[in-house]
Design goal:
19 strands, 11 helices, six-stranded antiparallel barrel, binds guanosine-5'-triphosphate, alpha+beta, globular, GTP-binding, six-stranded mixed beta sheet, binds magnesium ion, 33% helix
Length: 372
């Protein structure tokens, strides 16, 4: 629901309809009792009455994930793991093409069927080392996952078209990567174009606090062409280089911890979710908690569409066996058994309800908007 009527707003704020209408007139809006208002207008009216507006979104999963004991790993249990890479950048600068180019050089050459991609993540091997590439966290998904505290990416590839330069979403991507504290590698794309001007890109990046190595900074940049494959191998090598410096590690011998990359309801399979395993190993039959969803892993499928029985750190798998469809950005925890999983979910749901009640005692416009 994206609208609320004057009457509904008056009711939730415990005001007279006429008072609301008067305020609306003050804002230059001629309203009737059944007039529909959008969220922003409703919020302005609420604040005009001095009513505190507490959005429901304030109750995040973070508030309720205090119910799982996450034991820290002992340093001796940590093993190197593959880097997880997200491609970001402005619209049309070539993010998808770049991922395709990477897969083409690394996948199609081996697989007759062409680009195999079954889930929103893919793995490529470079010099016998694995790199996990996330497709989904296109810009918005990444933003919302970040806002929810989910950290899925180790390295951000920032694609900047050499003929277009730094654009608004490039700057947003820079800010996201900085906020997430992940290293950035710049891919200056579309180098095949006659109008390509990499120096301009470098200058504009410098203007936004990204100083590349050539210019005395510490950010690696690689001029590439997703179209003709120029320097794609170099880019991949740079990813491995950065990964080596960062020394990503995880403990494969513990219960799995991961994050939902995407999830949906499948007619045949029920709730399916693509999970990036970040620590531990997920196995068929494991009981899991994901947000307010639980389940037992019935089947797992890797990025090549093959069934697998185990998935270790830095692996993306599609899982089935969940009670409901979880949300992107939700964290997965494997737990001892179903009983524990169910108990945790019940506790979480109750806690969210209690928090919502608390919020609604002030006034929650969001609740009003989402209920109806
Ligand atoms: P959105 O997902 O819409 O944000 O775009 P994107 O960043 O994924 O860009 P996409 O890969 O869809 O490419 C946009 C356009 O640029 C397409 O027409 C591509 O063919 C073209 N393109 C991508 N890479 C290159 C390149 O290296 N050289 C040239 N000449 N064109 C490219
Ligand atoms: Mg795209």
């Amino acid at each position: 629901k994206s609208k609320v009527t004057v009457k509904e707003l008056a009711e939730i704020m415990d005001k007279n309809v006429s008072e609301i209408i008067t305020k609306l007139i003050g804002l230059g809006i001629m309203a009737t009792i059944n007039q529909e208002l959008d969220y922003d207008t409703a919020q302005i009216i609420a604040s005009e009455f001095g009513v505190e507006v507490e959005p429901l979104e304030d109750v995040t999963m973070d508030d309720v994930i205090d119910d799982i004991e996450i034991e820290p790993d002992r340093p001796e249990d940590l093993k190197p793991r593959s880097p997880v890479v997200t491609v970001m950048g402005h619209v049309d600068h070539g993010k998808t093409s770049l991922l395709d180019a990477i897969r083409k050089t690394k996948v199609t050459s081996r697989e007759a069927g062409g680009i195999t991609q079954h889930i929103g993540a893919s793995e490529v091997k470079v010099n016998d080392k694995k790199i996990v590439l996330l497709d989904t966290p296109g810009h918005e998904a990444f933003t919302s996952m970040r806002a929810r505290g989910a950290k899925v990416t180790d390295i951000a590839i920032l694609v900047v078209a050499a003929d277009d330069g730094v654009m608004p979403q490039t700057i947003e991507a820079i800010n996201h990567a900085k906020a997430a504290e992940v290293p950035i590698i710049i891919a200056i794309n579309k180098m095949d174009k006659p109008s390509a001007n990499p120096d301009r890109v470098k200058q504009e990046l410098a203007d936004h606090g990204i100083l590349i190595e050539e210019w005395g900074g510490d950010v690696i940049s690689v001029p590439v062409s997703a179209l003709n494959g120029e320097n794609i191998d170099t880019l991949l090598e740079m990813i491995l280089l950065v990964a080596e410096m960062e020394e990503f590690k995880a403990n494969p011998n513990r219960k799995a911890i991961g994050t939902v990359i995407e999830a949906q309801l499948d007619v045949g399979k029920g709730s399916v979710a693509t999970i990036l395993i970040q620590n531990g190993t997920l196995k068929i039959g494991d009981s899991v908690v994901i947000g307010t969803t639980h389940g037992r892993i019935r089947a797992m499928m890797n990025d090549k569409g093959k069934r697998v029985n185990v998935a270790g750190p830095s692996t993306a798998v599609e899982i089935t066996g969940l009670s409901e469809v979880p949300e992107a950005g939700d964290q997965l925890f494997a737990v001892e058994d179903d009983k524990i999983a169910r108990a945790i979910v019940e506790k979480r749901i109750n806690k969210i309800k209690a928090e919502q009640l608390k919020a609604s005692q002030k006034i929650s416009l969001d609740a009003l908007f989402s209920q109806m």
